[in-house]
Every structure is written in structure tokens, then in C-alpha cells.
Design goal:
- The structure is a single chain.
- The chain is mostly beta strands and 571 residues long.
- It is built from 4 helices and 18 strands.
- The strands form 3 sheets. The chain has an 8-stranded antiparallel β-barrel.
């Protein structure tokens, strides 16, 4: 036993030194110092009916209850009670050395003990922000206990040399039911969560009694009994209150009545700036710790809450506000902060001297009237000169101050026929369908053929899924691939005022819809023939690409079939 105690003492001293060397890098308050748990395990008796060599014999189930109190990260005390049975049998010896004696015993088993636990690597761990970490940690244990047994000893049949009856009777008379035990051993504990743990431990009990098995004189009275115990344990932590339900218990919570964060000892940080609200002069807006959590957006050393101009660096004499133009008016009060001005005009100049500050004067370099925001109106038509495209001639507001003599909606200066009304697409001139070429010759002495469906005799093919640029590319491909198409397209576009097909641009093409019942010449077949027709088409077939001419003779290509179509729009 002295050797066992010596080894235990050496282990305790080594682990204590290691524990001291591994102090926390940051101190974190750890909740729930108490645990209550249930152990369950097996014992193995050693004594007069079991030699010192280990072998399984009459292993018995034990259970009980324990309470654990953590004193710090490294030490805990654990009072516990174990109940069950303990037994032994001569016949279980593997070498048969006691078969001649054939003793066996069985006894109720009650152990109460106070055990100390040493955790060399800390019992549990938290991050510096107070977040629990699942850990597997070993520990040593040792303590003192009191054991109760009341063994019944039996000589089994077949004994050739049983103990003397007088020795058995003396053992019954001297039987000690209570004895002191010294538990010690190793354990392994897993912290499943902040509240729950599971563990396992194995240890030996040195007993200061030779009557665990009920024999001493009838056995080996020069050596006390003992037993090994292995058990698994589950426990629940308790003992801390969390009034504000923020996950930080009150004894670790610097703000126990308001929910907060673990890393700030349970205090909130509403603006997440690293300064807890209790120390934050601006708890709702983030700011540096040096300014007690208040921001200084412009970096002028004045917290925003005291800075009248928090987004721009300024002068202390103007409460943090700048004065860029140096006119004695802070920029925030200066309507013209970049140019010196008059105080009566809020720091703004009046260049043209018309009594209107330049920042309110739409024409700061020309004297004007207040009604026109400081701008002149030379022709008196109610449109100020800078917005009047004809400032010396009175005109209409709808035409930006320009006149329209023929009333066709085009200003005279852009109207090709200013004294004769005409549509805008004809640049203000009346419609005239007198283009030259067979395509543009609309018959006047015959009835048109009524067409209700397209696509039966396509010219350039289905093109409803193409954009104007894609359709132009399609025509160019046909122009290159077919001599007849090349000849047709060049003649067609020369009749429209172009030098030829090569002169056409995407900007000359637009999407259009041919009105129902339109009469004109429509093309058909790959030979580019045309026929005088009346198009009574469904809406889907009325879609066309419009090629704007240079001379008013616009041409259309129907999207359904790619056939060309010319008609003279009605006035």
C-alpha cells in the first residue's frame, strides 16, 4: 500500500505542476458549478478468496448517486453513494489453487465516499468570447470512504481441506461490517453540452479491513481486502441562475437584468461596435472605443454627437463645420460655400446685379426679371432666351419659342414647306405619291386583288423573329448570293432616293404595322414580281419592316413572308 500511495503522490504533484503551467490565456467565468449524476458499474473483489493476480470473478453490478462541486478549473469534490453486491469464489481461481478449500461469499455492498478530482488540462473550456467548447478531459481522483458489508460465507461441496471451524467461528465473532476505504484511480469525462456530461472511470479501493469477504483467521489474516471498481457516469450541471435568459448566468453576467452577449459578460452591444452598451456613450451607432463608442465620421476629433458637421472636417470655432470660401459663414449656413458672397444673400454673389443671388439666378450673367428667375425674354413670347430656339421671333411654347405659319406642328425653320401643311414624316410637306419606277406605280383603272393570307409565295422568307439589323443582314446575304436579288434591291432603293442598296443603314429601318385594307403593290416569288393588292390581313400578318426613303417613297417588307410592299398613305 505504501508503494501505491507513493505513486499516487508523484502523479498528483506532476499533474499539479502541469495544471499551473497551463493557466488560461483569458479568464472566463464558468457557470453551473454543481453537478448531480448517476453512476453504474461493476466491482471486482480482491482478498482471501481471490489471489492478487487479476481475473474476472463474481463481478457485481453497482449503482448510486453522486454530487460534484467544482472549486475551480482544476479541482472538484464529489460525495457519492454506491450500492449493490460484492462476492468472491475460490473456484474462480484459474490455477485451481484453492479448489481444496471451496469457500465462497456474497454480501450487500454500500460505499459512501468523499472524492477529490484533479483535472490537469482543465475540467472544461470556453473561448475568450465565452462560447462553450465540447471537450474530452482526463482526471485523477482520490479520497476517503466508508464501506458497509455483511458477508455470508459458504463452504461448497467437495472441499478436501476446508478451513477449521474454530477459525470460521472466530471470524463470525470478530466480523467488522464497517471499514474505511481509500478510493483512487483515473477518469475520462466528456462535456457533451454546457449542462450535460458523460464519463467513465476505473479505480481501486484500499480497504482498512480484512472482513469484506467475511474471513480473516480462516484465510490470510496478514493482508487486508480490497476491490476494483469501473463505472460509467452521466451528470447534469446546475447551480446558476440566468435572470435575463441570455445564456450568461447571473454570477457571470455584468448586466444580469438585460439580455446580452457572452463576450461582454452578458451585456448587450446594440450597435456591434465592440463597446458594450453600459460603457457606450452612443449605444445605437457604432464608433471607436477611444471615443466611448461614438463615431467620428469626418475624423476631426469631435464625436458626431457633438459635431454640427459630422461628415466633413471643420473648425472648432464653428463647432466642427468648415468655411471653404472664408467669408465668415459656415458652409452649412452658406448657400454658396465655394464662392465668397454677401451675408445678406447668405454668402452668395450677384454677378449681373439684378438683385437675384447667382445660386437662384437661372441666368447669372444676364440681367433679367424675377418672374423669369433672372433670365431675359428678348422676343416677349414668354419663353426665356436660353430655352428659346428662336429668341428674336415670337413663337409657340410647344415648339420651343419658334413660329409655325402653316400650323402643321413643325416649326418653320425645320419645315420644308413652311406655308403648306404636311405630315411630319414628309418634313411638313403634303403627301405626294409620284415616285418613279414600276414598283411605285399604283394602277388607277383596275380593282386590287384581295389578299387575306401571306406566306404562300415568299420573297425573302419568314422574318418575324428578326430585328431590323438582322433583317438588313438577311437582305445583304440575298444581295450577295443572287444576281436577280442584287438587281432588284439596287433598282428599288434608287427609286427611293438612295444611290443603291449599299447606301441603306440600320437607322433607316423601323418596325411598322400596315393598316388593314391598305392598297398597293406587293411582291411575290424569288423573281421579285409585284401585284396590285388590297391587304385584308390578320393582325399577326400586318407587321412589317419600314425602310424610310429619301424622297417620300417609303417601302415595307412584310415580316411574315419577307415580301416587299409599297402603298401611298392617305392624307
Amino acid at each position: 500500500m505504501r508503494r501505491i500511495l507513493f505513486v499516487t503522490a508523484v502523479l498528483l504533484s506532476l499533474t499539479w505542476g502541469q495544471a499551473q503551467a497551463q493557466s488560461d490565456t483569458c479568464r472566463v467565468c464558468k457557470p453551473y458549478p454543481w453537478e448531480v449524476g448517476l453512476p453504474i458499474g461493476l466491482n471486482q473483489y480482491f482478498g482471501d478468496m481471490h489471489c492478487s493476480r487479476p481475473y474476472a470473478s463474481a463481478n457485481s453490478l453497482l449503482t448510486g448517486v453522486f454530487l460534484r462541486r467544482h472549486l475551480n478549473d482544476y479541482f472538484a469534490l464529489r460525495p457519492q453513494v454506491l450500492v449493490g453486491r460484492i462476492a468472491g469464489n475460490d473456484l474462480d481461481a484459474p490455477d485451481g489453487r484453492w479448489d481444496y478449500r471451496r469457500l465462497k461469499f456474497s454480501s450487500p455492498f454500500v460505499e459512501t465516499a468523499l472524492i477529490g478530482e484533479l483535472y490537469p488540462f482543465r475540467e472544461r473550456k470556453y473561448t475568450c468570447d465565452g462560447v462553450f467548447k465540447k471537450t474530452l478531459t482526463p482526471y485523477l481522483f482520490g479520497g476517503v470512504g466508508l464501506l458497509y458489508t455483511n458477508p455470508t460465507v459458504t463452504i461448497q461441496p467437495g472441499a478436501t481441506a476446508p478451513p477449521l471451524q474454530r477459525d470460521l467461528d472466530a471470524d463470525v465473532e470478530n466480523l467488522k461490517k464497517w471499514g474505511v476505504v481509500l478510493p483512487f484511480g483515473l477518469g475520462l469525462k466528456y462535456n457533451v453540452s454546457e449542462r450535460w456530461t458523460v464519463g467513465a472511470e476505473a479505480g481501486y479501493r484500499i480497504a482498512f479491513t480484512d472482513y469484506i469477504d467475511g474471513v480473516s483467521l480462516a484465510g490470510n489474516n496478514g493482508r487486508d481486502d480490497g476491490y476494483f471498481l469501473g463505472q460509467v457516469m452521466v451528470s447534469y450541471r446546475f447551480g446558476s441562475k440566468d435572470s435575463d435568459k441570455d445564456g450568461v448566468v447571473d454570477n457571470c453576467d455584468a448586466c444580469p437584468n438585460e439580455p446580452g452577449l457572452r463576450k461582454f459578460q452578458g451585456c448587450p452591444d446594440r450597435d456591434n461596435d465592440g463597446t458594450p452598451d453600459k460603457d457606450d456613450a452612443c449605444p445605437d451607432v457604432p464608433g471607436p472605443i477611444a471615443l466611448k463608442g461614438c463615431p467620428d465620421t469626418d475624423g476631426d476629433g469631435i464625436p458626431d454627437k457633438d459635431d454640427e458637421c459630422p461628415t466633413v472636417p471643420g473648425l472648432a470655432s464653428l463647432k466642427g463645420c468648415p468655411d471653404r470660401d472664408g467669408d465668415g459663414v459656415a458652409d452649412k449656413d452658406d448657400a454658396c460655400p465655394d464662392v465668397p458672397g454677401k451675408k445678406e444673400l447668405k454668402g452668395c454673389p450677384d454677378t449681373d446685379g439684378d438683385g437675384i443671388p447667382d445660386q437662384e439666378d437661372a441666368c447669372p450673367n444676364e440681367a433679367g426679371t424675377a418672374a423669369n428667375k433672372g433670365c431675359p425674354d428678348s422676343d416677349g413670347d414668354g419663353i426665356i432666351d436660353k430655352e428659346d430656339e428662336c429668341p428674336q421671333v415670337a413663337g409657340l411654347a410647344a415648339l420651343k419659342g419658334c413660329p409655325d405659319r402653316d400650323g402643321d406642328g413643325l416649326a418653320d425653320h425645320v419645315d420644308a414647306c413652311p406655308d403648306e401643311a404636311g405630315p411630319i414624316e414628309n418634313k411638313g410637306c403634303p403627301d405626294v405619291c409620284n415616285c418613279t419606277g414600276s414598283i411605285f406605280e399604283i394602277p388607277t383603272n383596275e380593282a386590287p386583288k384581295v389578299v387575306t393570307q401571306l406566306g404562300t409565295n415568299p420573297e425573302f422568307g419568314y422574318s418575324a423573329n428578326l430585328s431590323p439589323s438582322q433583317f438588313l443582314a438577311k437582305l445583304k446575304k440575298a444581295y450577295t448570293a443572287s444576281a436577280s436579288s442584287k438587281k432588284f434591291l439596287d433598282e428599288l432603293f434608287r427609286g427611293m432616293g438612295y444611290t443603291g442598296f449599299a447606301d441603306v443603314k440600320v437607322s433607316d429601318i423601323s418596325n411598322a404595322t400596315i393598316p388593314y385594307g391598305s392598297e398597293g403593290n406587293i411582291g411575290f416569288s424569288k423573281q421579285h414580281k409585284s401585284q396590285y393588292s388590297k391587304l385584308n390581313l390578320k393582325p399577326v400578318d400586318q407587321a412589317a419592316f419600314k425602310f424610310t426613303s429619301k424622297n417620300g417613297c417609303d417601302i415595307y417588307f412584310m415580316k411574315t413572308c419577307g415580301n416587299h410592299f409599297y402603298f401611298c398613305p392617305k392624307k
